[in-house]
Amino acid sequence: MHIAVAGNIGSGKTTLTRLLASHYKWEPHFEDVDENPYLNDFYTDMQRWSFNLQVYFLTSRFAQILSVRESGKDFIQDRTIYEDAFIFAPNLHSMGLMTTRDFENFFSMFNLIGSFVQPPDLLIYLRASVPTLVRQIQSRGRDYEASIRLDYLKSLNERYESWIGSYTRGKLLIIDVDENNFKEDKEDLGMIIHKIDTELHGLF
């Protein structure tokens, strides 16, 4: 069983991944943030480091998926490999923060790697407005995220909505983070768990 949690920066992916892993006894796999050698540089100079950052995320997520698939364990993943290709790289390119040459090179790499990757059995998308994203980003207090631009978050949100609107790779569950405080409210978390049970097992 492969469950994946998708969503913009600050939407609560890591928190929900941790909570669901604990409830279902799934093995959690988180985005490599603390050990990422490019994040600090990227938020300081996006144009210079965008390609390096996206290649790092793409290859690290691919290695993660292969490793866990081979183990045969049920797992839940914080962010998907598809978001690198359909959200972040094209967004950087459209904002003039990644050259066309680098974008085309990146997408060729994704197409090759993607041919070896099976989609998740269930994709959970955390939908959140920009004010909610900003509030949650500020509350966790990561220094390198202090310089994230509002137009960057807004553009990412638009791309997420477009991608989710045409997602056909498997089962999809959308959670409105503006209306669901799963981090602090057990009833809200319970609602999500009930919806997951329904999607995976047909329980009503």
Question: How does this structure look, described?
Answer:
This protein is an alpha/beta fold and 204 residues long. The protein has one domain: Rossmann fold. Helices cover 57% and strands 12% of the residues. It is built from 8 helices and 5 strands; from the N terminus they run E-H-E-H-H-E-H-H-E-H-H-E-H. The chain starts with a strand and ends with a helix. 30% of the residues are buried.
Keywords:
12% strand, 8 helices, alpha/beta, 204 residues, five-stranded parallel β-sheet, Rossmann fold
Brief characterization of the structure:
The protein has 204 residues and is an alpha/beta fold. It has eight helices and five strands.
By CATH reckoning, the class would read: Alpha Beta
User: Which word captures the global form?
Assistant: globular
Instruction: Quickly give the CATH architecture.
Output: 3-Layer(aba) Sandwich
- Please indicate the count of domains: 1
Q: Which spans of ≥5 residues are poorly predicted at pLDDT below 50?
A: none
Order of helices and strands: EHEHHEHHEHHEH
Averaged pLDDT, please?
91
* Strand-pairing-aware structural class: alpha/beta
How many β strands by DSSP? 5
CATH-level-4 superfamily name: P-loop containing nucleotide triphosphate hydrolases
Say what the CATH topology is: Rossmann fold
Distance between the termini: 20 Å
Rg over alpha carbons: 17 Å
In spatial order, strands of the major sheet run 2-3-1-4-5
β-strand percent reads: 5-15%
> Count the helices. How many?
8
Report the sheet with the most strands, covering strand number, pairing sense and barrel closure.
5 strands, parallel
Percent range of helical residues = 55-70%
